[in-house]
Amino acid sequence: EAQVTQNPRYLITVTGKKLTVTCSQNMNHEYMSWYRQDPGLGLRQIYYSMNVEVTDKGDVPEGYKVSRKEKRNFPLILESPSPNQTSLYFCASSPTWDRGLSGYGYTFGSGTRLTVV
Amino acid sequence: GNSVTQMEGPVTLSEEAFLTINCTYTATGYPSLFWYVQYPGEGLQLLLKATKADDKGSNKGFEATYRKETTSFHLEKGSVQVSDSAVYFCALSDRDTNAGKSTFGDGTTLTVKP
């Protein structure tokens, strides 16, 4: 089944403890992106990647890192999490960014609910 | 920068009622516009899209028309069902000025009662 898989689905952690949220897609998509969803703020883009080894900042990149060493994986790294990073996180992919615009749309993962205490 | 404004929810309707969810946008270029739907516990799914002025996107009985003069992309459905209960997001991507980036609205929660 074609899908975007995020892990874990739920995570509670403490301030300052490094964590990684994994994202993997099995569709050979070039474009991948991370979003966070917060009440009253909608979805905000954190980072995106047009292809392997190419990453760029979205609208809210502070406090996050990403890497794209291989096409299928796009992990989100929080080096020193803080309570304001408590949120619902989504990974998304598309064959290319342009095809995401042309009607193919993006395929989203099921989300990771992160709580930082 | 780009922005998307959706009507505030939640919206509660009876089955077979007419649905409108308003969406207006601000963009520096000529964006493509989208509606996504999120069912409980799931990720977002593309519902429909329009890539240029006066285009009408449609899917599963939902429609939205790209109105450049009013910078709007309102979502409509003539007769909603209980299964349409979900969160709806309006979004835009601007190919010319923000390659790779997408902007989403806050989402509107729809509940349809039998």
Largest Cβ-defined interface: A-B, 32 and 26 residues
Mean pLDDT of chain B: 91
**Overall number of strands of chain A:** 11
Separate helix tally of chain A: 1
Gap between N and C termini of chain B, in Å?
41 Å
Distance between the termini of chain A: 36 Å
Q: What quaternary form is this? A: heterodimer
Structural class of chain B: mainly beta
Shape of chain B: globular
The strand count of chain B comes to 12
Shape of chain A: globular
Element-by-element helix/strand order of chain B: EEEEEEEEEEEE
Radius of gyration from the alpha-carbon trace of chain B, in angstroms:
14 Å
Strand percentage of chain A: over 45%
Percentage of residues assigned to helices of chain B: under 10%
Q: What is the percent of helical residues of chain A?
A: under 10%
Largest sheet composition of chain B: 6 strands, mixed
Largest sheet of chain A: 7 strands, mixed
